[in-house]
Design a protein that fits this description.
Blueprint (H helix, E strand, L loop, with lengths): L6 E7 L6 H14 L4 E4 L3 E2 L7 H9 L3 H4 L5 E2 L5 H7 L7 H11 L7 E5 L7 E3 L2 E2 H8 L3 E7 L4 H14 L5 E5 L6 H13 L4 E2 L2 H9 L38 E4 L4 E5 L3 E4 L1
Parallel strand pairs: 1-5, 1-8, 2-5, 3-4, 8-9, 9-10
Antiparallel strand pairs: 6-7, 11-12, 12-13
Helix pairs in contact: 1-2, 1-9, 5-6
């Protein structure tokens, strides 16, 4: 049985070729290097025969099989929106329900810390026969949405239109300005305008995006393993050692020495005290 990740994040974009895959892969890479358990999914992808595979890049970052990230039957060989690409190659275009069902069934048997689902194209681009990227995002019921936008000319208009489409399906998003250069006056002004005039949360570095993602990941009590929101601290005893991983709630293996102890989680490695 598949288990939904503890934090499900949809990565959307203001347009195609905006850098969603690069941002998703960079985010996943940093999380994995910090011993967080991450899965990535691309419900459907399309592109020419010489185009790099988004699923391959995501799989390399999360150390999963590329066919797990995006199943072979959802890979279309022409550079069009997935339902259009399906029709152009003589295939039946997917529905929103089919894509959501496939993603849901593909998660691992044990819940990971973060699940990333990267959409195709922009939020208003066709994602299925019966809906666009925003419809697919809403149907996935994510815990958070990242809207990737280019830092340069035209981004304010693109961000506003994309956020309006997401809002129409009940979603809000943090904005990630890709290719941001603090030495570029236009980039700085775009960021300031979106943050100060529009009141948006705007990020410009992968490290900030990692912190934002982890800041929304549920933490667990080291003594009872329950989410901290469900623990009343009555389980805590003086000088007691953590018996559960504070990241995922799994039981840890504790090792003692005269000067310190360490707690080792199967997923998140060893933490010393």
């Amino acid at each position: 049985m598949s288990e939904r990740p503890r934090r499900l994040v949809v990565v959307a974009g203001t347009a195609t070729e905006i850098g969603k895959t690069w941002v998703s892969a960079a985010l996943a890479t940093e999380l994995v290097e910090d011993h967080w358990a991450v899965e990535a999914r691309k419900p459907a992808q399309s592109g020419g025969p010489d185009d790099p595979s988004d699923a391959d890049l995501l799989a390399a970052a999360t150390e999963e099989a590329s066919t797990t990230v995006c199943p072979p039957h959802r890979r279309y060989s022409v550079p069009m929106a997935p339902p259009m690409a399906a029709e152009a190659t003589g295939l039946e275009p997917p529905t929103i329900g089919e894509l959501v069902g496939e993603v849901t069934a593909s998660w691992g048997s044990r819940a990971t810390d973060v699940g990333l689902v990267e959409l195709a194209g922009g939020v208003a681009s066709p994602a299925a026969a019966d809906g666009d990227g925003a419809d697919l995002a809403a149907a996935l019921a994510p815990d958070a949405v990242v809207l990737v936008a280019d830092a340069g000319l035209g981004t304010i208009n693109a961000v506003r239109l994309s956020l309006a489409r997401l809002a129409a399906v009940g979603l809000n998003a943090v904005v990630y300005l890709n290719r941001y250069d603090d030495g570029d006056d236009l980039h700085r002004r775009n960021r300031a305008w979106l943050a100060d005039r529009d009141g948006l949360s705007v990020l410009t570095s992968i490290s900030a995006l990692v912190e934002w993602t982890l800041g929304r990941a549920p933490l667990h009590c080291g003594y009872c393993g329950k989410p901290v929101t469900e623990c009343d601290s009555s389980c805590t005893r003086p000088l007691d050692l953590d018996r559960f991983c504070v990241r995922c709630g799994r039981r840890v293996v504790v090792s003692l020495s005269p000067v310190r102890h360490s707690a080792s989680c199967k997923l998140h490695g060893t933490h010393c005290a």
